[in-house]
């Protein structure tokens, strides 16, 4: 779906991070394939598509399920430890993706409430963001990470919890708990959720945003699009699909337009 039509007025915004604000997915891919190469294995994009948005260990289990003939020494714990060591050397060089700084600074300038909801661990977030103050300072600490203890274990994306925690804890909104369709969520809470806009690059994140009852802008990696990647259920399709954040038009969502 294009972004060329007038859409509901948005009052608060939540961003994913990896592959959406910063070019960190490249590091995940390069490091994993560096570890797999001695065994003649490769994480292709059709495999990686199923990892995006999942918590770290869950993603590792899914990845290694494709390579059952790896030696016992290549365990999940070994993979996570070795990968972390290589990644830590590269996180301080990660750069923002096109349009990310412009959009975030624009929303911050106009005092649009916003937060980050990422499946990254807190330590990794700090390594990825410390050199990117121009981007992340705009969030003023409103960042939910997978291991902050704010989201129940096993309730990562595609569950909506991380977006609801971000909205409640950092944006001060009464959004309730659980999926928007659940009877425990009041009409008032659904109305508040519907004023939220989620930016995501991964399919599980799109599903989480829609299950939260929020609007979702999907900015998929070109490699995922090349696979024919799309959401799995009609009622969980994104509200808008863009090639990059540079294509986002704020006024289409009732947000302040960019300065001329």
Task: Record keyword descriptors for this entry.
260 residues, alpha/beta, Rossmann fold, DNA polymerase, domain 1, 2 domains, 11 helices, 36% helix, 8% strand, PGP-like_dom2
Structural account:
There is one protein chain. By secondary structure, this protein is of the alpha/beta class. The chain folds into 2 domains: 12-24 and 94-253, 3-Layer(aba) Sandwich (Rossmann fold); 25-92, DNA polymerase, domain 1, CATH 1.10.150. It contains 11 helices and 6 strands. The protein has helices spanning 25-36, 45-48, 56-64, 76-90, 100-109, 122-129, 133-136, 161-170, 187-193, 203-211, 222-226, and strands spanning 12-15, 114-117, 143-144, 196-200, 215-218, 240-241. It has a 6-stranded parallel beta sheet with strand order 3-2-1-4-5-6, covered by helices on one side. α1 packs across α4 (76-90). The model has no long low-confidence stretch (mean pLDDT 92). This is HAD-like protein. It comes from Dichomitus squalens. One of its GO terms (molecular function) is phosphatase activity. Pfam families: Hydrolase (PF00702).
Tell me the number of structural domains: 2
The level 1 CATH classification of the largest domain is Alpha Beta
User: What percent of residues are in strands?
Assistant: 5-15%
H-E order? EHHHHHEHHEHHEHEHE
User: For the CA atoms, what is the radius of gyration?
Assistant: 18 Å
CATH superfamily of the largest domain: HAD superfamily/HAD-like
Q: Which ranges are low-confidence, i.e. pLDDT below 50, for 5 or more consecutive residues? A: none
CATH topology of the largest domain: the name is: Rossmann fold
Pfam families: Hydrolase (PF00702)
Organism: Dichomitus squalens
Protein name: HAD-like protein
GO molecular function, one term: phosphatase activity
């Amino acid at each position: 779906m294009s972004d060329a039509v007038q859409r509901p007025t948005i009052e608060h915004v939540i961003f994913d991070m990896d592959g959406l604000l910063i070019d960190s997915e490249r590091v995940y891919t390069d490091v994993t394939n560096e570890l797999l190469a001695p065994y003649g294995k490769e994480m292709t994009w059709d495999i990686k598509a199923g990892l995006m948005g999942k918590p770290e260990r869950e993603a590792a289990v899914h990845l290694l399920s494709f390579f059952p003939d790896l030696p016992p020494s290549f365990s999940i714990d070994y993979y996570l430890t070795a990968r972390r060591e290589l990644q830590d050397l590269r996180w301080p060089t990660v750069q923002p993706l096109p349009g990310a700084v412009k959009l975030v600074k624009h929303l911050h300038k106009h005092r649009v409430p916003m937060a980050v909801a990422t499946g990254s661990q807190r330590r990794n977030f700090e390594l990825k963001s410390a050199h990117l103050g121009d981007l992340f300072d705009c969030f003023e600490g409103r960042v939910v990470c997978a291991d902050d203890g704010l989201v129940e274990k096993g309730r990562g994306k595609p569950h909506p919890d991380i977006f609801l925690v971000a909205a409640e804890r950092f944006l001060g909104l009464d959004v309730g708990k659980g999926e928007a369709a659940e009877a425990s969520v009041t009409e008032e809470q659904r109305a508040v959720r519907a004023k939220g806009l989620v930016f995501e690059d991964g399919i599980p994140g799109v599903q989480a945003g829609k299950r939260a009852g929020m609007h979702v802008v999907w900015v998929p990696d070109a490699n995922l699009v090349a696979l024919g990647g799309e959401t799995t259920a009609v009622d969980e399709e994104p509200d808008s699909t863009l090639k990059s954040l540079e294509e986002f038009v704020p006024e289409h969502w009732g947000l302040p337009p960019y300065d001329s």
